[in-house]
Amino acid sequence: MHEPIKIKPISEVAQFHKNLIPINIPATYALKPAFKNLTNVCAGVIAFRDFLLEFCDRLASDGHLYAKPPKKPTSMADYPFINHVCGLLVEIGYNGKLAEDGDLLVATALPPKIPKSSLLNCMKFLSLCGFIFTGIGTETEPLEVSFPDNPMVLTGLKAMAIADMELRTGRRYSNDNYILGCDYRLLKAEESDMGDVLADLLQTLPAKIRDFVLNLHKRYIDMGLTCITTRLGSISFAYVFFGTTNRTLSERDLYAKRVWEINYSIRNSYCLFVRAKKTDKYADVIKTFPVSLQEKIAQGYGCYRKLGRNRCQVDCQGIRIPLDESILDMAEHIETWLDAETPNALKKEA
Questions:
Q1: pLDDT at 329
Q2: How far apart are CA 37 and CA 290, in angstroms?
Q3: What confidence tier does 305 reach under pLDDT thresholds 50, 70, 90?
Q4: SS3 label, residue 194
Q5: pLDDT one-digit tens code per residue, 178-190
Q6: CA angle at residue 26 from 264 to 107, to 5 degrees?
Q7: φ and ψ at 213, to 5 degrees?
Q8: How far is residue 350's CA from residue 348's CA, in Å, rounded to a whole number?
Q9: Ramachandran angles phi, psi of 312, nearest 5°
Q10: Whether pLDDT at 346 is above 60
Q11: How far is CA 66 from CA 179, 233, 327, in A?
């Protein structure tokens, strides 16, 4: 039996989303063909990023007036209002027609699955963030959308909505709020370095912790592990050993083969998860670790019920180490630990 879900305050959910917005976006980069008919895309994306930062700040301060949790939440961040706002933004951006001078988006259809009362609520909130809506969004009376303080936001919204609908990978869900992350890398013609993407995820952490994690990333990529990212509720950078299999693996199959991962979630914030499976083979090495780390390894991981503990805490991802200052005191030991769990075939020559 799962513990009853205790939903987080809307201010914490807003901060969670804000932490996912990349602060450092290049002023220019080569674009994919999907954006050949748009101008000033790079500047527009930066403008849209600035809007999202304001959106999250406004959500933190005034969101409680608009966003109400459902009676039976499915997650700690389950606010339908946020999902509805994202659906509205994607619909307007993707299907709306951008005026030639870029200062107006005209839409003739609104998301059909969002109740009209919720749509009006979303528009009221977006108006607080700088949008102006005129019309009702029908074939006879289109909805005109503007952002007077910075019209480039509309170009950025158009570009990010195209990226959200056409260029992202993975399954789409009804509670999807992917557009809030402003993943500009979907627009780039060249593939991004995974280390740079991870650095963006860690941007709010202290420099020493960021450096520790980024050094782990480089070390195990150099050893031959593959880094895959997943984004479903939490954001994960998982380090996978493929082995000798020749069959094509699904994202779920790949994720199941992970050795360890960096994870950011509303439940646990920033964490390192280790799926330790070989501890009996290096018990003497574990005895050299700090007592706190030894105790975590001894506790193991898995379903709480099967381990004879309390109700399920959704802690079956691995042994969890928070990415806070305490991890720096055991950094060298964690590296030794991960080396011991990494398949010998991938070890660097001494």
A1: 93
A2: 58
A3: very low
A4: helix
A5: 899 999 999 999 9
A6: 80
A7: -65, -45
A8: 6
A9: -55, 130
A10: no
A11: 20, 22, 38
Query: What is the torsion angle, in degrees rounded to the nearest 10, for the CA atoms of residue 151, residue 168, residue 219 and residue 337?
Result: 120
Residue 237: CB atoms within 10 A of its CB come to: 22
Q: Which amino acid is at 106?
A: V
User: By 3-state DSSP, what share of the chain in percent is helix, strand and coil, each rounded to 5?
Assistant: 45, 15, 40
CB 227 within 8 A of CB 221: yes
Tokens 């042994």 belong to: 319
Average pLDDT, the chain: 89
Helix boundaries (H) for 244-330: 251-256, 283-286, 291-299
User: How many CA atoms within 13 Å lie on the side-chain side of 245?
Assistant: 11
Evaluated on CA atoms 240, 216, 234, 42, the torsion sign reads negative
The one-character DSSP state at 2 is: B
- Checking if the pLDDT of 92 tops 80, the result is yes
Query: Token pair of 27, please?
Result: 């002023």
What tens digit of pLDDT does each residue of 47-62 get? 999 999 999 999 999 9
Beta bridge partners of 235: 231, 264
Per DSSP, what are the bridge partners of residue 273?
261, 320
Q: What are phi and psi of 228, to 5 degrees?
A: -120, 150
Q: 259 in helix, strand or coil?
A: strand
Q: CB count, 10 Å around CB of 319? A: 22
Q: What angle do CA 200, 55, 175 make, to 5 degrees?
A: 80
| Structure tokens given for 167 | 């260029």
Cα separation, 125 vs 121, whole angstroms: 6
Question: Average of pLDDT values for 312-333?
Answer: 85
Provide the residue ranges of all domains of the chain, joining segments of one domain with +.
10-187, 194-346
Q: Six-digit token pair at 177?
A: 């709020």
Note every long-range contact of 209-212, with CB atoms under 8 Å and residues 24 or more positions apart, other chains counting. Answer: 209/323, 209/324, 209/325, 209/327, 209/328, 212/327, 212/328, 212/331
Query: Where is 336: in which H helix or E strand?
Result: helix 331-341
